[in-house]
Specification:
The complex is a heterodimer of chains A (about 150) and B (about 270). By secondary structure, chain A is α+β, with helices and mostly antiparallel strands. In chain A, about 15% of the residues lie in helices and about 30% in strands. Chain A has two domains: about 40 residues, no CATH class; about 90 residues, RNA polymerase II/Efflux pump adaptor protein, barrel-sandwich hybrid domain (OB fold (Dihydrolipoamide Acetyltransferase, E2P)), CATH 2.40.50.100. In chain A, strands 3-10-8-5 form a four-stranded antiparallel β-sheet, with no helix packed on it. Chain A has a four-stranded antiparallel β-sheet with strand order 7-6-4-9, with no helix packed on it. The longest helix of chain A is centred in the first third of the chain and has 13 residues. The radius of gyration of chain A is 18 Å and the shape is globular. In chain A, about 30% of the residues are buried. Chain B contains five helices and twelve strands. The longest helix of chain B has 22 residues. The N and C termini of chain B lie far apart (about 50 Å). The chains are: A alpha+beta (about 150), B alpha+beta (about 270). At the A-B interface, β4, β6 and β7 of A face α2 and β6 of B.
Chain lengths: ~150, ~270
């Protein structure tokens, strides 16, 4: 399984109500589970297909760097830009930012503004947790789907 | 506290499109900002097409909280709550819809040469007659609501504007010499906004661009685009389906912009 496919599988699991997903493809079997302390339990592979397991597990395990690895074992939540525009951390120039690094934030809390064509879009967090990374500088352009914040969920 | 609606448009009209059936108008003597009030109303769950209108704004504001002067009785200071079923990336088109609705309103009621400046300024002879501040609340790919604030300068004399704005701002009174009727302007604006918005939702921004272009004198001209950090010159080539301004650079390359101030190169 390719890294992108594995990422997609993890994303589907994150967004779903189920605890575990297992897929089989070309004799390879990969299971991803939410339970336990690790968000990726790894693959269980028939003994006859030994080459599959490392290929499936290693890239995903290596993907989050030290800063992105939450202490509680849950996967970081990304807050992404829903539109192309300009990123603002504060409601007005000179005002305190909506959120700072390591701040506790709640679901629905405003984290930034994205402006496009003079429409000011207040972005709300969809997760409750701690601001672990702020990935864009104030007043810089952002692309659609670009990750703006990493949230360590509670 | 809201006072009773005093506007002809407070009564829903028939025949102006489905949107008008839900029109509600909350009229205030004085508010901090109609956008603030409309935002709070939207948070409380008021339906789409709830308008907030005030005689005076004590804290009227524009983009990035720049002050918008909105003295008592001299203009239309209003905001409308919208709940479009579009993704956030489509919603900026609403700012262009609002500018078109204002331009139609002013053209219909007053003999002035009204033009549009990308993305949403309404101008008369190079001076701004209307300001639009659109704010949106979104979560992920879902737009919860949009508050579109519209301030139209109607009856200001030159001295009613702060000195630093007198060269940049104008009013219906300054342009025509006649006092404008605020209730009439709002009553015209509301159904115009409903019609433009209905076209936008059903057929997209492109369906409105022919009319928008016809009111934008910079089309086809050499312009200067000032963005944060750079200034680019080129031919004002087009506005694309998302509302972005497309410049044709000297090299022949087309480049699109979602932010910036555009001005003619003289």
């Amino acid at each position: 399984m390719k890294l992108e496919q594995l990422k997609e599988l993890i994303r589907v699991l994150e967004e779903s109500g189920v605890e575990e997903i297992e897929v089989s493809s070309w004799g390879r079997r990969v299971r991803v589970s939410k339970s336990g302390n690790s968000y990726l339990h790894g693959a269980t592979v028939p003994a006859s297909l030994p080459e599959a397991a490392p290929a499936a597990v290693e890239p995903a395990a290596a993907e989050p760097g030290p800063a992105e690895t939450p202490k509680n074992g849950k996967q970081m939540k990304e807050i992404k830009s829903p539109m192309v525009g300009t990123f603002y951390r504060a409601p007005t120039p000179g005002a305190p930012p909506f959120v700072e690094m390591n701040a506790d934030i709640d679901v629905g809390q405003t984290v930034c503004i994205i402006e496009a064509m003079k429409l000011m879009n207040e972005i709300q967090s969809e997760a409750r947790g701690r601001v672990a990374r702020i990935l864009v500088e104030n007043a810089k352009p952002v692309q659609y789907g670009q990750t703006l914040f990493l949230i360590e969920p509670y | 506290m809201p006072i009773e609606p005093d506007l002809p448009g407070g009564v829903p009209e028939r025949g102006t499109g489905a949107a008008s059936s839900g029109r509600r108008v909350l009229t205030f003597e004085r508010v901090d900002s109609t956008n603030e009030v409309a935002w709070r109303e939207a948070e409380r769950g008021v339906p789409e097409w709830t308008w907030v209108s005030a005689d005076e704004q004590t804290g009227g504001r524009g983009r990035l909280s720049r002050r918008w002067h909105s003295p008592a009785g001299l203009g239309v200071w209003t905001s409308v709550v919208l709940r479009p079923g579009v993704t956030p990336s489509v919603a900026p088109g609403i700012t262009m819809c609002a500018s078109l609705a204002v331009a139609r309103t002013l053209r219909k009621l007053h003999p002035m040469s009204v033009s549009l400046k990308w993305p949403n300024d309404v101008m008369v002879k190079g001076r701004k007659i209307c300001g639009i501040l659109t704010e949106m609340k979104a979560s992920g790919e879902r737009v919860e609501f949009v508050v579109c604030g519209i301030g139209i300068n109607l009856n200001q004399a030159a001295e009613d504007f702060p000195a630093e704005l007198r060269d940049a701002a104008t009013s219906v009174f300054l342009e025509t010499g006649h006092k404008a009727d605020k209730a009439e302007a709002l009553a015209e604006l509301m159904p115009q906004m409903e019609r433009v918005y209905a076209v936008f939702l059903s057929n997209g921004l492109q369906a409105l661009m022919g009319e928008w272009r016809s009111m934008c004198p910079l089309f086809g001209k050499i312009v200067r685009m000032k963005t944060r950090g750079e200034t680019v010159e080129g031919v004002f080539h087009d506005i694309d389906a998302s509302g972005a301004l497309v410049l044709r650079l000297e090299s022949g390359v087309h480049r699109s912009f979602l932010a910036g101030d555009v001005e003619p190169v003289s």
